[in-house]
Amino acid sequence: MVDRISVEVTRRCGKACTFCYNASGPASRLAWSPEELLGFVDDCVDHGVRAVSFGGGEPLLWPPLFEVLASLRGRCFRSLTTNGLQLPRHLDALVQAAPDKVHVSIHFPEDAEEVARVVRQVRLLQRRGLRSGVNLLVRRSARPQAAAAWRVLRAAGIDAARIVVLPMRGHDTPTPRELLDVTGGERFASMSCLGGCARSPRFASIGADKTVAWCSYTQTRRVLPSLDHAGLLAALDGLGLAFCGDDGTGPRMVAQSTPSRG
Asked: Residue 178 and residue 192: Cα distance in Å, rounded?
């Protein structure tokens, strides 16, 4: 049974990274309305979803975020992933909405200023009473820089369990062995599919365009036929999964599958 979902609340983002898997950027206006999102998530929680992660784009650029987080407080585990650029402006509102966890992303570990900023922000979030962590993006071509960023994070007192090591998808993808080299042999958190492309029967990703997939990065997606839990299951039923990494052979499909209905 799907009990964890990730929702892109908007595709608007100030960074405009060229490698962004969903083409988010400053000009995008693609986003959920608060009424649609609350109705959808409320119904999913009523049917057994226990954890909701909010992302984008940049979720802090979606004004209804704090209202949605507050309304779901106590109903499910609420987390969000942010690039951190909007945190100074929205920190007080975020603290008041009290998400259960906030992850700040390092997209460019070769940028010492970005790494230092994320360290400061993670510490600040912790001081303000919010559980926090780091998403560290690793490109195969920039493994030494990612390793240096890992060492900075660990030296700053950020526990390895709080650092999610994410391999670049689509191209320049490091192997699991190469990720272990980045961490100096320390155990690390990452995606459940790191060892091989496969769906998780417990997780689904929902885009700002209201499409559904077994993975946030795959291009195999299907539009929600209705904005509720029944629509989520219908969209997942029989949905395949296209490999999103780079193994030298190009995109491929893994077996079609029907979600467990619990």
From this structure: 17
Q: In this structure, is residue 262 part of a structural domain?
A: no
Host H or E run for residue 155: helix 143-155
Q: pTM of this prediction?
A: 0.89
Q: The domain containing residue 183 runs over which residues?
A: 4-254
Q: Is residue 225 part of a domain?
A: yes
Distance CA 162, CA 153 (A): 10
pLDDT tens per residue, range 145-172: 999 999 999 999 999 999 999 999 878 9
Q: Work out the burial of residue 157: count CB atoms within 10 Å of its CB; fewer than 13 is exposed, 13-18 middle, 19 or more buried.
A: exposed
Question: How many domains are contained in the chain?
Answer: 1
Helix (H, G, I), strand (E, B) or coil at 119: helix
Would you call 39 helix, strand, or coil by DSSP?
A: helix
Beta bridge partners of 103: 81, 133
Which CATH number fits the domain that encloses residue 99? 3.20.20.70
Q: Which of 37, 168, 28 is nearest to 105 (CA)?
A: 168
Average pLDDT, the chain: 90
Task: Quote the CA–CA distance of 253 and 66 in Å, as a whole number.
Answer: 38
Half-sphere exposure of 89 (CA within 13 A, CB side): 8
171 in a structural domain: yes
Name the pairing type of β-strands 211-213 and 222-223.
antiparallel
Residue 232: Cβ within 10 Å count: 24
Distance CA 2, CA 244 (A): 21
Residue 147 lies in a domain: yes
